[in-house]
Amino acid sequence: MRLALENIGLSLGGKEILSDVSFTVEDGQFVSILGESGAGKSTTLKVVTGILPQDAGRVTFDGVCVDDVPTHRRDVAMVFQDIRLFPHMSVADNVAFPLRMRGVSKAERQRVADEMLEAVRLEGFARRRTFELSGGQQQRVALARALAARPKALLLDEPFSGLDEQLRDDMRRLVTALHERFSITSVMVTHDPDEALVMSDLVLFMSGGRLIQAGTPREMLLSPAHEAVRTCFNDSSAIQGDVADGVFACGRLRVPAPDVADGPAVLVRVPGRVPFVHALA
Ligand SMILES: Nc1ncnc2c1ncn2[C@@H]1O[C@H](COP(=O)(O)OP(=O)(O)OP(=O)(O)O)[C@@H](O)[C@H]1O
């Protein structure tokens, strides 16, 4: 689904939170939203879901305005940092919950739960209670649940923040793999510039409720339009080597990669595979 925000404005409690925010996420793209705390990133996702209706502008899905469509009919799924599973239900029942809400038969719910648990590598966990799972496993259940009803878009609000660095890296790879498998239009809020660079087709940078730059990871690195963008990508700003389409080089990239020492590295994004880091030295 192609998702577009057009000139969105929103005030809360007399304070302007979003101002003239416009961007388009093409069908199947993965987009990250970066920016300082309070920039309006989460609020932007809430406008997409309809949880917070905007005061100005419009939201369209495949060119059709959804401003009058209530949240539960917008058919977008959201994954949060705090995982929000149902503790009294099994893992499989959690995953199948959105289907139960739609009156899908028990047999079909079970089939989809099995498929989704396989997709997030939790086969064999179907009958467990969610409190018996680790934080990383619970986040994988949340992802499986979000995707179970095949939503038109997946919104992720700092989904990895509560996880340690190794788990974060596993989850980044899993989310990238799920995005490619299901070809789902995805928007992720993150504080982590490297995460945004590694995972995204397009990066949106917000500041003070405005979208101050939108570009590919390569454009954000090579042509930061604002000092805030340059500072954010500071650790990745020592560009080295040739820059070619789909491949760019940068120094001191902090993306965890067990086989890469602290040093110059190339971040490689190839369509159809998980991005990887390749040491230059
Ligand atoms: N319901 C609300 N009422 C009043 N102000 C709000 C409300 N929700 C958010 N805000 C304010 O709107 C601004 C943007 O909040 P938002 O959560 O979108 O920022 P963010 O960029 O996601 O920040 P963070 O990275 O810290 O999560 C903040 O100043 C916040 O205090």
TrEMBL record:
<keyword id="KW-0547">Nucleotide-binding</keyword>
<keyword id="KW-0410">Iron transport</keyword>
<dbReference type="InterPro" id="IPR003439">
    <property type="entry name" value="ABC_transporter-like_ATP-bd"/>
</dbReference>
<feature type="domain" description="ABC transporter">
    <location>
        <begin position="3"/>
        <end position="233"/>
    </location>
</feature>
<keyword id="KW-0408">Iron</keyword>
<protein>
    <submittedName>
        <fullName>ABC transporter ATP-binding protein</fullName>
    </submittedName>
</protein>
<keyword id="KW-0472">Membrane</keyword>
<dbReference type="InterPro" id="IPR017871">
    <property type="entry name" value="ABC_transporter-like_CS"/>
</dbReference>
<dbReference type="InterPro" id="IPR027417">
    <property type="entry name" value="P-loop_NTPase"/>
</dbReference>
<dbReference type="InterPro" id="IPR003593">
    <property type="entry name" value="AAA+_ATPase"/>
</dbReference>
<dbReference type="GO" id="GO:0005524">
    <property type="term" value="F:ATP binding"/>
</dbReference>
<dbReference type="InterPro" id="IPR015853">
    <property type="entry name" value="ABC_transpr_FbpC"/>
</dbReference>
<dbReference type="InterPro" id="IPR050093">
    <property type="entry name" value="ABC_SmlMolc_Importer"/>
</dbReference>
<keyword id="KW-0406">Ion transport</keyword>
<keyword id="KW-1003">Cell membrane</keyword>
<keyword id="KW-0067">ATP-binding</keyword>
<dbReference type="Pfam" id="PF00005">
    <property type="entry name" value="ABC_tran"/>
</dbReference>
<keyword id="KW-0813">Transport</keyword>
